[in-house]
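@channel sequence for tomorrow's demo:
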Amino acid sequence: MIFKRLFFISLFLYTINFAQEVKWMAIGDLHNWYSAAGCEIEVGRTGQVSDQQDGLRYPAFYRVQDNQAAKGLWLGATNFHDPIVSKDYEYKVVHAGPRHLDIENETIPKEISLHGRYGHPNVFVDGDPATNLQYLDNVDEVDPDLPADRKIYNVVQTSIGVEMQRTIYAFSHPEHQNYHIQEYVFTNNGCYDADCNTSYEQTLEGFQVYLQYRYAISREGMVYDGGWLPQSAAWGHNTMNDVIGENPDAPSGNDQYYDDGEIIRGLFSWQGYHSDASFDNIGGPNSPGEGHLGAAQFVGVTTLHADTSPADNTNDLNQPSTTWFITSDDPSTSGNDQYNETKSRKEYNQYMSVGHPEQSQAEVVGTGYANQFADPRAGSNPGGTSQGIGFGPYTLAPGESIRIVLAEGAAGLSREMCYLVGQNWKNDIHTGDMPAPSSLNTWMMEHYNGGSGKNEYKNAWVFTGADSIVKTFKKAKETFDLMESGQTLPFPPRPPAIFTVTSGGDRITIDWSAESESEPGMDGYNLYRLKFKPDTSLFYYDLANGNIVDLDESIASIWTLDPGIGSYEDLTPERGFDYYYFLEAFDNGTNDNIVLNSSKFYTLTNKAAFLKRPPGTSYSDIRIVPNPFHISARDLQYGVSAPDRLMFLNIPAKCTIRIFTERGDLVDTIEHTDGSGDEAWNSITSSRQIIVSGLYIAHFDMGSEGSEIRKFTVIR
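structure tokens (generated this afternoon):
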């Protein structure tokens, strides 16, 4: 425990001395933040240890689906003259991450901007901005000719005399929204600071590009959130890392399952066995709870293109030249020093250019405990294992460039299947309903499954995620090939520019502007209403039959509306409950082989709408609901989003509500001024304490018009 505390403190210390601008890609099922410094380092966005898993959120519709723990970007060269310190180095390495970041002297941000085919919609609930895109999707420049829905353009000057241009593309196409294409161009510009005040022309020998990926699969069940998985899983202690296509001339035993006539170069990671788990933790089932899978994601990176040389821009299938894993707490991952030649020599030779291992980390671990795996180069493994990929060596003369294109994605079981499989596992039913076999799924089960019976059932479904991530890699390759030929994916209809939700006394009114109407093949809208919270699931698990009901009509509604309609009056909400809405515009399927719809994230509200009844006409009609309030029924009263809510109903348009204990102590004061007949109270006192059991008195003060008193009981 002492080590863990010191480890967390060290994480904090690594991050308090810098700040960098970030931009988000948040318009599809995969959300991630990107740093102006060119790499997303450990706790680099917030500096908070509780955000050890931060980014690469999939499926992003639901809370705490983060899979990213840390990344690193190292650039190295041999026989290098450093004009900053007037010294020759046999090995020179500059760093961004996985923990260290020096934006003043090493990886120096020059530009980061977000571009969109259109700006983000303006979404309002009761007049207030009400969408996460207000801060996640601040488009700097609108370009209707973009080959993607969103683009981030990032320029970084490095102290190795190389400028890096990073361009990231994201898509809202329903079949292409779970990956981001990342293009890197490294140019030997001979500059050693952002303004090129120090310049020196030299040919870079042995130029290596090295990227580290530390994945920790799904934050949902981890220590700071669900808390049902072992603590160290939160930093990827039990992450499994596999590699495919690393040696096209001599593929490994599992490469045949990825081929389809074309080499797919990539790495992918998933949650492996953890020795501290008291249950079979593949897929991260909520064993103490209802069983749903909280860590069934597969995440990874595929290489789409790597220049053969600065003079030969053909795709070199022998790149990446390095696919060796690295222990995540290896000393080389911390306290990086570009002027420490001994450290640079080790980084360059033992990690950046070391080649391919005979077996991946996952193959070595097999069905063992991934948290107990030890890298022979570093010994013990307190932090888990990261994957490293290196490109090079290249010779880069002054003015020459190297281009590398990757795609990073996430895939796996749908949310519905995570509930179906996990709860069937928990209840030990339907264990004979195995997934359709595939070559890859069979490979995964043979090499990484240590369970039997209901565990084998669960794991067989979880391991289909390997097929899904490889399919994602192939989709990314299709899109990249289109972009290389000057074409684009078919685009879904654009969302409306304005989307408003207005609470009323007997209805909630939804209005939107007409931008979608002019899109090719536009065929209508789907309007969604979610009860309780904005990530409410549309489905529910039927315990009696062990299956999933696609639409839980008690908490979710969908209305399909014709083109030309720009508003809808929802007449079915219940008073006291919170409601969230989003709108998808869809086409008739003529733009692609499937119907395309605009992303739900463009209009998804994050502020609740609710019924507001007209003000009461008689003070004698004032009611407090529920009365009594009983904690055993808290989820049944106003739902899981408001378990402690009390409603004051039929009250005047304006009044002051004072709540007292039976002894006459003032608990809270509420100023009701919105003109409705409703006011909600969350049972919190003015000193931010939850009220205890007892009899309470509510005093309704209408000023010169008089006052009323009501009593209510709380049982906790």
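heads up for whoever presents: The two ends are 35 Å apart (CA to CA).
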